[in-house]
Amino acid sequence: MSWYDWLLGIDRRWIFLTIAIAVVIPFFAPLGLPVVVTPPVQNLYDAVEALEPDGKPLLLSIDYTPATSPELEPMSSGVLRHAFRKDIPVIVMTLHPAGYGMAESAILAAAEEFGKEYGEDYVFLGFQPGTSAVILGLGVNIRTVFPEDAYGTPLSELPVMEGIRNYDDVSLLITFAGWSAAEAWIYYAHQPSGQIVGAGVTAVMATDYYPYLDAGQLVGLLGGMRGAAEYERLIDRPDAGARGMDSQSVIHLIIILLIVLGNAAYFASRRARRLAQARGEI
Amino acid sequence: MGHDRGRLRGARFVTGFVAGTLAAAALVVCAATLSAQEPIEPAVPESLAAPELLAVPTGVQVEDTPNDRGASVNVTWELSADDESLRFEGYRVYRSAHPETGFVFAGRAGRGATTYRDSEAPNNEPVYYRVAVGDAEGGEAFSATSDAVTASPQWFNDDRVNVLIAVFIFVVAIVYFVNAARGGKELFIRRLAGLDEVDNAVGRATEMGKPILYISGLSTISDVATIAAINILGEVAKRTAEYNTRLIVPCADPIVMAVEQEVVKEAYAKVGRPDSYNEDDVFYLTRSQFAYVAGVNGIMVRQRPATILYMGMFFAESLVLAETGASVGAIQIAGTDAVTQLPFFITSCDYTLIGEELYAASAYLSREPVLLGGLKGQDTLKFIIGVLIVITVIVATLAATGAISNDFMTPLFITH
Amino acid sequence: MRRQLPLALCFIFGVFTAIQYYVPHFRVQWFQERLLQWLMTLLAFAFLLGTVSLIKVHYHKLRDRAPDRGFSLVVFAGLFTMIGLGFIHPDHHAPGSPFNQMFLNVQVPIEATMFSLLAFYVASAAFRAFRARTLEATLLLIAAAIVMLGRVPIGDLISPKIPEATRWILEVPNLTAKRGVMIGVGLGMMATALKIMLGIERAWMGGSD
Predict the structure, then answer these.
(1) What is the pTM of this model?
(2) Does B155 reside within a domain?
(3) By CA distance, what is B158's nearest residue in C?
(4) B235 CA: distance to closest CA in chain A (Å)
(5) What ipTM was estimated for this complex?
(6) Residue B92, Cβ neighbours under 10 Å: how many?
(7) Phi then psi for A161, rounded to 5 degrees?
(8) Residues sharing a CB contact under 8 Å with residue B105, sequence separation 6 or more, in sequence order
(9) What residues contact C124, with CB distance under 8 A and at least 6 apart?
């Protein structure tokens, strides 16, 4: 059997194994590759940086599910840390039922790290079904959508919610989602109410959001683990995002190598077939 | 009983009398205190003139918020000279129905802010505003009173006239072509290979005695892609009913499931096989993205469907689904408007409908003239948008060279 | 009547929602608020609908002794364990509660693993299907390689031109193509919505007659 036939017929499980090894090794032997910050991430950072300490709150919608949490959790942690470090009040909510646990664990970890007090510095509103209805409802009155927080406390009893009625009283909104939640926030919060929206999405979705970025409908964008790593660099606190960059670098190189190998084998086999045809063997 | 009532009345009289007296007394005390303190300036603290207070904001302007639901006033001011001071604690906005007295707290704004939107102003009553600066010691210095402003609700948002005009043209185009189609006008629709293949795919499943798996995406009913997927499901179900082939529809949203059960049931009834419909074949799995993938992949591996259709909105799960489908040897037809997922479907599926082809599918499969008319209307507006893009590109290019101004284009394209 | 009523409701609520976009007056917005509240309430009941369907389908599989009924047992075990854990702890979402532990230590890793399959499938699909057969496919292949390198730190190390080229690809050709598709999709969405409101498209309620 020729090398190209062998390569073209290779069991895909060998490829899976190569990928698995390539992902794992950099975790034990970090390469420490430097991360360069790109404009969409810088813009989101600048938007948070420009917020007033103890001023209008930042609304974070942690809309990701357990599946996409490895990619999106480093982003939400980065933004939460940035906000808490700057003493910006934070309101957290979710549009996905499975986002409840994700949002809660992210905010509890960040609040503990910065010694933030529940109700005074941040609040967790929980989940409400009906994505577009929820977003539109928040534009009219937060209290009709979330009469109480996730733990049953009426919003009127929470100091951080004092004077917060709708998007007019929220400085910036950032959504983290592995589904179309970010689009919904653009359509139903930015468009009718002019709310400034930023987003963190999975790498595979990131290219979808460039038109919104270009049109100014998104103030900034974090795309995939790379986006998280860049944000971590901006707040000078490398974590899961930065750790993942080494693995991702190696994987991307391997995939390019696989494409090259696949093409080399394909062209070699095509050439051999043509030669055989010319010789009249086929 | 009567006695009790009498006693109750007596008790009421006593309490009423006491309360009334106390209230009257309070009034007298209040009036006395107030008259002793004239002139009345309750909201402006005595320390207004004290030298240690921060500089007050100037130029306080007010306007009724345009195009709003009412009860809203925009207050703007120029920054206090002490905005950067360490003692500066923010701006506080006060409202009153009287230019001199009775100012109540309306809201606050942080350092560097020059605007505040008061959303609790009374409708159709003139009010006045003052903006105060607060300092770290609890002192407050007030600006001069603004002019009077009256908040009022609007019945029409004139910022959205451009959208209204565009929608009007669109509706007219759709209605015109639908009527033309009803009138028997022949409308051309180009070939969509993926949809032509649906019949063959159903036939293949029948020959092989294997089921057809229909995945209508992971979005909810509010997504038009899901509605398009449901429309296509109706047509597919008619064919599976005719051929008596099993159709499995696992759903990721309960409302979508309820609608799809109805659609499939109707389709079976329409071709005269209501008994072949099995409600358990259109079922809910989970809303959780990858748990759904696990469930569907399990069905693929166990049931080995001959044909798999992916129609609707998909996210990162598309490739995992389509690769598993390919590995069980199914014919796969996909259709989605999720642009980022298209490369995955094109790689792993036999046929892929791109973007709006998904919306055209229902009209294409059913060949109903009115639905085809809708497509024609869509094309008309797309042509108008194409022309507009060309014109605006030319204008913007000329504007960049300084030959003309493009300011006139802004209201055409910006909405609020 | 069975058809007229849903069509009438669809028309009324569709037209109202379209009109309220142009009418900011609080009297109209009051109705819109109520409508959104109804919608949220309705959607909350949908979860119940889903759970009932799930239980019914798997109960039927067990009752009919379907060949793969073992999986149905797993479904019931998972469903009732989580519901049970939610009830036994007064604050089921508190950190450290059994419900929360199960969510963070069972559901999260399982789902994340499922998502990570994507990396393996992408690699295998790229190897099998990404061929420079034609000029377009070759251009696509080169663009993909540049973007893949430009999105990871190693690209910066190889040459600062790679991230620049990546940005250009994302912000110029990608953006242009995406806008083209988005305009088409947007119009398609509007047309579908309009056809449903006017009752021209009735497949969603089972057919056209």
Answers:
(1) 0.82
(2) no
(3) C22
(4) 27
(5) 0.81
(6) 18
(7) -95, 0
(8) B92, B93, B94
(9) A12, A15, A16, B323
